[in-house]
Amino acid sequence: MVLRLTDAQNATILAIAETIVGPLPDDVAKDIVSEHMDTVRNLSEGTDEAAGTPTEDELLATTQVHPRELGLLASVEVMLHKLPKDRWSEFEKVLYLLSTGWGTKVVTASARMVPFHELTVGEREDALRNLTLSSFAKVRSLFQVFKALVSFCMFAKTRSVHGKLNPLWENLHYPGRPEEKKRPPRSQFWEPTFEDMTAMAKVAGKGNPITLETDVVVIGSGAGGGVVGTSAELAQAGHRVLVLEKAVYFHPADASFNELQGFWDHYESAALLTSEDLSMMLLAGSASLPPPHELCHEWATTYNLPYFKSQAFQDAISTVCTRAGVSAEAVLHNVPNQVLLDGAIKLGYPVEAVPQNTNGHVHECGFCTLGCPYGEKQGSHVTWLRDAADAGAKFVDGCYVDKVTYVKDAASGVEATVLNGSVRLVVKAKTVVCCAGSLHTPALLLRSGLRNPNIGRHLRLHPVATEAITHPSVAQWLIHADKTTTNVVWKGDYERLEYLGDALIEYLVVTYAYIAHPTWQPGALTDWKGATVSNDALGKAALICFHIDQIMLTGSMRLDPLLVDKLADLKRLHAEGSSERPHVTMPKIFADGFEALCAAVFLDAGCDLHVIRDIFLGPLLSVVGPDAVAHVTRKNTPKPVDISPPPTLSTTDAAGENVEEDNLRHGEDVRNNDNDEAAVKPEPARVSHISTHQQPIEIIEIEDSDDE
Hints:
Structural class: alpha/beta
Radius of gyration: 31 Å
Helix content: 25-40%
């Protein structure tokens, strides 16, 4: 497919890129970088983890790199060549719509009816944000496609248009190539030998297919095809084995580890392969994870497949792991995975490192996605297929299998194409083994005329973007991390968490009110509790204190721009300490999210009530102003009291100096002063950090006025 972007399409793509990864205004960049640097300093305090990290000036420079500087349009055009024809047709239509005023309005609900590239940066940001709020899954996924495409082409480019190193790499201290140790010479790598298709095509004659005969033809050379084609099982037993591989072989010594080129060379559709609705991009992993015990048990009991709980199956797994050098002993975790591992251990979760096929080598180069620079990863091409080659097996690369052929009810071989699809290949075989992977084996079987209704219907894709709290209408996922895994499997949904969170919050509020206000009658306590645990109060706490709207994917048009603006006003007024409140009906989903979040933290903290009290009670009380409970008391919202030994609280006074208050308010009488009948306007909430056995947690605390 020859693809050429038009001027209008180029203008649209560049405008999208400028919106997502373009230069930031100076004030915005300074705020973001300053916040990031504060976070780095807080997290690395007392350690040397901040050593070698980018400086503030380097990060500021990163925010000013323009997509044009890296020739982004040319990179995007190259990557789009990998799109299937039908997918490119869809993408082309979207680009056309965004190049028109009416199309931009229809697709993005933009503020003005002008082509996307004529919108202001702010209007473009709102337009792209609207895509994520669409009620149509494909429209929501458009933003993810745009974001992934332009971000990858921006960060993966090696050099700028001026021939200099990518300034993003330079400022972020990214080396761009393996530097763990010196790469071995070419002679230390084993290199397979492939059948010479060019010579065979000449012998067959122009227009004639190449015809080969074998005992066993194996389609695919990966984790499945490699094992099937082993010397011990087939080739070494005297069978003629021919392995057909769609990809083209690249020698590890020739790898430049250029990310753009690497993804183009080594990944299906240059890593642009997506599900039909664009909701998920498909990539392979680098882990060597045996089927979990729970999964084998399910297969054996639910689906009546007892083999998966047999000793024979366990022996087979052990054989594969031994030959492939699979072990967790040499795994060194990066910082995020080590934090995950340590946290799981502290919480008492069963956790273990995911084994890798490094044959006992400490392997932390960080470039495994683009191949192994040291020849240490024990993929099938250097283990099983090497054994097969030593026993006489033959290989064809760059071979696309069109279909399996049959004689009566038995497979008789395959029909394929080689040499970039220019020459047909016919293989006659006694046995055909399809190991084209979970994506392509079903497609091959369907192309071959098989009509079993189960073919291709049971593929399950595993998302790596974690969904923490999920609606019951959405499929539940088994979540694993890259180099660590736990056996904690969450099969519930957010409504179950909401049920628990509702009870927890009510307990906290009732206990607090009962202890803090011993003179209140049951009616007053009930009224105050009702106002505090209302959808309005919980929703405001979720938005103002936890910014839950920024991490929720609702797929609902209820979150229209008008509502978003009102919520922004609500946050602004609260931050300013104003008692004014914009008229906005708080969607119940935010209150539900607050309750579910509370329950999730409670469970993660080992059902520790003190933890959720420290995290959630202060923020909740901070949004319940005196107007909401005027019929109960005309006093300011009462201060929280400690119902357990108090933690150390670090606050900041008006002059900006840190003040340590050990045992703040401990033992004081916090009852309202009954002699003071005047309503007191609450001071603005201020952020403090509370020191517990966990990491510092940001809370909101309301102080009494000085004149009370």
